[in-house]
Amino acid sequence: MKTTRMFQGWIKNTVRLGLVGGLSLLMGFASSSLAQTNQTAQPKQKEKPANVPPLPAGVKLHKDQNIQGVWLADGFNFKGYQTLYLTPIVFAGIERTNEVDARTMAMQELPEQLVDNLRDTKLFATVTTRSEDVKSGAKTLKLDNTIIEYSKGGGAARYFAGHFGGGQPVIKVRGQIFDGDKLVCVYEIKRSGVLHAGRIMGAAMSDEDLQRADIHALARDLAYFFERTAGVLQ
Length: 234
Known about the structure:
This protein is an alpha/beta fold. It folds into two domains: 1-43; 47-230, Rossmann fold (3-Layer(aba) Sandwich). The chain has five helices and ten strands. The protein has helices spanning 2-41, 100-119, 155-161, 196-200, 207-230, and strands at residues 47-48, 62-64, 67-72, 83-86, 90-91, 95-96, 126-128, 140-151, 170-179, 182-191. The strands form two sheets. Strands 2, 3, 4, 5, 7, 8, 9 and 10 form an eight-stranded mixed sheet that branches. Strands 1-6 form a two-stranded antiparallel ribbon. Strand 9 and strand 10 (182-191) form a beta hairpin. Helix 2 (100-119) runs parallel beside helix 5. The chain is globular, with a radius of gyration of 26 Å. The relative contact order is 0.15.
């Protein structure tokens, strides 16, 4: 009797293991087929490599609250300037053929958000992207911004791993600020998936809406850095 029960138990375990193994095999086949289908439906996009310039000589970035990297010239604090002139945005990240429209949107949205948020600081009488708005003789800072990392994200990846950051858009900007020919500030800011809703139900949200939120957060946080550095906020 004891031998029979042991034999029956062995049979049950064998069947159970066989079912688990078969299920794993079927899942493997399904994953492989899905991957092949995706590759067929979405051919690999062509990419133009990034062309990110090195940091200026002598510049070492350090973290400053919610800004990933900052460098300031000795004694510089944004005070005493009448005009902040933002030069045209430069793109130096990877250029993917499926992101042309998204890149265009980002390069339009970024300067608009920067101007709006930096005007709100009241540190400058004029904040502009138009060189003709810079008055002769006005004490002026020039701000050059370069997008050094970029991705529009993707809804499919957000569906499966959005809660962990998968499929979220990415934008990283390096800014260099000049007083005449003198470099006075360098920063690097990266934002990706700042909206909580984008991580919970990001598959139902557009890449563009999520990236607009990231760009807004980037501009708002930069303006906050300007204010803190100038002593307006603590």
